[in-house]
User: Which sequence fits this backbone?
């Protein structure tokens, strides 16, 4: 049974179509990475799934049941870690986690156990009596996560939880998410950091202009684009004829020479490193340094969504009131 | 009641505002009430400090001097330009009267001829109204002399003075009459007028600042995703605001009763109870205003500015700073559209009351009803703004 099932979701803000027949399925125990440029509709999609926003068309099912603003039984099973840190500045770490947990769990004894567990889980034991203003950016993000997961939800939405945190904190957060999944949670994870999505997500969906434009595992997504390995050859000098010869190789998708480096994007298939080096040798070019790397998720993302800037006041940053 | 619990906890973090807005304003109110001075049961005419320079030394001038002496504390002064200038500059006396030479004869002559009375010279103190009061007494005496001289052209000066003095003795006598029941003390009225600031501005400031985090969009988003229904959330926020309002009202009422316990003990409990009802209605207005500020999502640093300016305007229109009687008709017309005027009008009825009657209670509760309508109107505006913001989101 799918934990999340979104079908043909349409959400408009006036003339702007934030979600355009958006489909999404998340199976139990998955970490689904939701990728997309700013304003592509990621946060809007999450807010619709949480019934924080109304939508114009489509259907949303969570845990196999229709989700709606009054489905408090379903909401009880969900956790959210919003993009912005959402905590009470006047309360301590412990009080904050307890405050949000109390909205799900009324039993005080059980709540105390859950709060302690959440504090330990995010590594804030030494800071439980600190107020948010006293916490560093990374600790604050961890508090934000603890407030969203203390009640041990089955489905957790992480909306860019690692923005502006140092690598150590990011690593701790990602490890924590994997632990949550190991404990039985299902996760929907949005981020702009491709490497972390690649690191933890079992499946990835790329959104653009309110639609799902690609979906699959990391390998499947890399297979969808025409680019294979990328070869970089550092040379002291490169004759124009040698560059042209590399460009004319059958497997070359594109080749350019900049800053004493020859960059060759190859088509998918076997490695073309030998062929490139043979061409260079035939022109008397001696490589100083050579390396080859497979296509990254970033390449996939840019290939699918294009490279033009997207921040023109789109709807992704919209949040809801009650 | 998790939202109430969180809200109360957040408000408790700003308990210093209770001290600033509630306790300090209660103290300010008591200072203002203290400036009225102690109430005396016995009537005692004011006796200004007066100096007289009699350059006439006539029967009339001596009679005038005697009349002044009878109602004032006389002090001596030299008859020189310098002494008179110093008396004026140094506020030597509340009133300095100079009777010019030939004044008595000229007054009688003018009265019999129907001409204007001759002028007296005087210096009136600028520090109090006592000198002006004395001047009024002197003018009154002179006018009687003038009238008597005009009415009895054949009477000699001694006879005129005797007749006027006899008339003066038969003047108005003043005595204090015990009412059936005394109304609330004026000092308590002044305290309660100042309570308007704490009840209106104080509650709004505490709510606006204390609950600001519960209005933050990211927190609202997080709470919106929880199993707490939006109606429950709203109801619990209202409950938290009510608890805050009742706390402010209770503190203010307790301080007031403690400060004026002796005076209040002499008046019927019903009058004090009615005063507390008026203050409760004002508290509802403060709660509604706090709710409005909260719904508007006003930033913390702006809350104090908005609340204080509004509270100043409301308390001014209620006659806290300037008595309503001194206000122009235009200001009074505007004041009718503010809750303070209706509340203070009801308070004044309780001060003027000589007994507790159903008419008095009905009249006071009528004003209380109007104040409550203001609260409802402001709360409705807050609800409408909340709904509008929700619709936009």
Assistant:
């Amino acid at each position: 049974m799918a934990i999340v099932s979104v079908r043909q979701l349409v959400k408009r803000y006036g003339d702007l179509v934030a979600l355009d027949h958006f489909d999404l399925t998340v199976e139990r125990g998955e970490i689904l990475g939701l990728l997309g440029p700013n304003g592509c509709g990621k946060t809007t999609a999450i807010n619709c799934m949480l019934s924080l926003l109304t939508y114009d068309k489509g259907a949303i099912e969570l845990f196999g049941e229709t989700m709606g603003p009054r489905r408090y039984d379903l909401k009880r099973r969900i956790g959210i870690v919003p993009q912005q840190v959402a905590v009470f500045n006047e309360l301590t770490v412990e009080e904050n986690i307890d405050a949000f947990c109390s909205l799900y769990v009324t039993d005080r004894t059980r709540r105390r156990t859950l709060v302690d567990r959440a504090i330990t889980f995010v590594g804030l034991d030494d800071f439980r009596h600190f107020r948010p203003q006293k916490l560093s950016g990374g600790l604050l993000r961890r508090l934000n996560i603890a407030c969203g997961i203390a009640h041990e939800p089955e489905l957790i939405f992480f909306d860019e939880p690692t923005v502006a945190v140092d690598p150590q904190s990011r690593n701790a957060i990602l490890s924590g998410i994997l632990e949550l999944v190991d404990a039985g949670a299902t996760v929907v994870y949005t981020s702009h950091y491709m490497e972390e999505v690649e690191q933890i997500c079992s499946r990835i969906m790329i959104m653009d202009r309110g639609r799902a434009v690609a979906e699959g595992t990391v390998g499947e997504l890399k297979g969808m684009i025409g680019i294979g390995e990328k070869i970089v050859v550092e040379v002291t000098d490169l004759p124009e004829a040698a560059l042209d010869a590399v460009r004319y190789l059958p497997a070359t998708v594109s080749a350019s020479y900049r800053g004493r480096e020859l960059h060759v994007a190859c088509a998918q298939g076997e490695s073309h490193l030998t062929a490139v080096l043979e061409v260079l040798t035939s022109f008397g070019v001696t490589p100083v340094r050579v390396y080859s790397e497979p296509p990254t998720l970033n390449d996939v993302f840019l290939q699918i969504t294009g490279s033009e800037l997207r921040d023109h006041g789109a709807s992704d940053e919209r949040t809801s009131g009650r | 009641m998790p939202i109430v619990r969180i809200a109360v906890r957040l408000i408790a973090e700003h308990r210093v505002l209770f001290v600033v807005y509630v306790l300090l304003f209660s103290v300010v109110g008591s200072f203002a009430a203290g400036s009225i001075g102690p109430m005396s049961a016995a009537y005692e005419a004011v006796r200004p400090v007066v100096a007289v320079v009699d350059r006439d030394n006539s029967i009339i001038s001596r009679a005038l001097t005697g009349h002044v002496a009878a109602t004032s504390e006389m002090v001596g002064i030299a008859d020189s330009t310098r002494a008179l200038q110093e008396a004026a500059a140094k506020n030597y006396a509340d009133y300095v009267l100079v009777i010019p030479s030939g004044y008595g004869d000229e007054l009688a002559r003018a009265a019999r001829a129907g001409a204007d009375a001759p002028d007296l010279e005087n210096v009136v103190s600028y520090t109090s109204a006592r000198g002006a009061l004395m001047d009024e007494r002197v003018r009154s005496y002179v006018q009687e002399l003038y009238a008597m001289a005009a009415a009895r052209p054949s009477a000699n000066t001694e006879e005129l003075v005797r007749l006027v003095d006899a008339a003066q003795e038969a003047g108005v006598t003043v005595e204090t009459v015990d009412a059936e029941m005394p109304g609330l003390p004026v000092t308590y009225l002044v305290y309660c007028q100042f309570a308007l600031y704490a009840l209106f501005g104080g509650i709004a400031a505490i709510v606006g600042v204390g609950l600001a985090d519960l209005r933050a969009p990211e927190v609202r988003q997080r709470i919106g995703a929880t199993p707490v229904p939006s109606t429950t959330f709203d109801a619990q926020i209202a409950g938290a605001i009510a608890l805050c309002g009742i706390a402010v009202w209770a503190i203010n009422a307790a301080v007031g009763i403690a400060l004026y316990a002796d005076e209040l003990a002499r008046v019927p409990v019903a009058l004090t109870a009615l005063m507390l009802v008026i203050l409760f209605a004002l508290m509802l207005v403060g709660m509604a205003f706090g709710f409005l500020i909260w719904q508007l999502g006003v930033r913390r640093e702006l809350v104090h500015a908005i609340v204080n300016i509004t509270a100043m305007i409301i308390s001014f229109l209620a006659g806290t700073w300037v008595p309503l009687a001194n206000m122009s008709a235009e200001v009074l017309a505007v004041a009718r559209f503010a809750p303070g005027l209706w509340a203070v009008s009801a308070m004044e009825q309780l001060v003027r009351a000589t007994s507790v009657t159903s008419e008095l209670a009905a009249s006071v509760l009528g004003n209380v009803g109007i104040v409550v309508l203001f609260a409802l109107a402001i709360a409705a505006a807050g609800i409408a703004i909340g709904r509008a913001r929700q619709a936009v989101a």
